[in-house]
């Protein structure tokens, strides 16, 4: 989108990819496709999710001769990302929204040891959504809105209107009714993007994910995970023409975007647009709902945590039982004690204690004691 808006490419622009992007020398970005012509233009590159294509046009944006150097080119690219709603909050009407991250140049200056020590190759994987870049699901769904609307969006919100709306209510909702125009890309260029994303669902990486009676547009994604299986990402909008819904699904440890996240996104769109899910779809829902994607390491961690918790509960229950038993023993001892008797040393022995009658004073001895006479 940035390269199109900046006039750096047209929808007919293509690259040669034979399994990866190697123009940066030491940095090599792999691609899942090797067949010639799979990135001959924008539409094909989108349909085949070609990493080489997106790496190439990312470098074109950063190294844009319109700007004086890499830093200025990167700042312009970052300005676009922020305008798309990435790296900042969208101000949704919910608390604790995360802005995620589009790195500032200062981060890279510090990381590489100065502004002159890094270039477009140093941050190449930003072009495929990696490196230090992060995004939230709602930001990705909003990005789909921008593409579906051909260049604009309204901030995501839950409250559409307030019954018997007053001036204060109108003021509160005003920012959610404001149209944010992001790009000035031509309709023909956007049409190429729409067609490419539709091809993803026809013969591309999401070809087997169908919505009965609905043509839609999508993009699959796979986020690398250094701690285990990659995360599955799927973004889409539907229908292709006159879109009504935008969706973003992220499944941790799900693998390829079309494997775990894609089917879930398909179910959401089908239910929303058709108000039902087909019989065939319900069978897939059942399969997806029973899929266990929790990594073995995390499963073992929970098992250990549960074992410790169970042991702790057992100890607490044993202590509680011992305390109850002690209270019962004390009550039983007090019931057995004769009148004017008490536990020896103030401790509850659980035994019956009797005071010998020979130790008790008779009335005559008590009177002599009280009178002070010998």
Would you state the CATH class of one domain?
Alpha Beta
Strand arrangement across the biggest beta sheet: 5-6-7
CATH H-level name of one domain... which superfamily?
A: DD-peptidase/beta-lactamase superfamily
Main sheet attributes: strand count, strand direction, barrel closure: 3 strands, antiparallel
Taking pLDDT < 50 over at least 5 consecutive residues as the criterion, the unreliable ranges are none
Relative strand content: 5-15%
Q: What is the fold-level CATH name, i.e. the topology of one domain?
A: Beta-lactamase
Given the helix and strand composition, which structural class is it?
A: mainly alpha
Which series of helices and strands comes N to C?
HEEHHHHHEHEHEEEHHHH
Number of strands: 7
Say what oligomer this is.
Answer: single chain
- CA radius of gyration is 36 Å
- The backbone outline, from C-alpha atoms, is globular
What's the CATH architecture of one domain? 3-Layer(aba) Sandwich
Helix content: 40-55%
How is the topology of this model organized?
Elements: H1 2-5, E1 20-24, E2 27-30, H2 42-48, H3 51-62, H4 70-83, H5 105-112, H6 137-148, E3 152-153, H7 167-173, E4 180-181, H8 187-202, E5 217-223, E6 231-238, E7 245-251, H9 261-274, H10 279-289, H11 296-336, H12 363-371
Antiparallel strand pairs: 1-2, 3-4, 5-6, 6-7
Q: Characteristics of this structure?
A:
single chain, 374 residues, mainly alpha, Beta-lactamase, three-stranded antiparallel sheet, two-stranded antiparallel ribbon, 12 helices
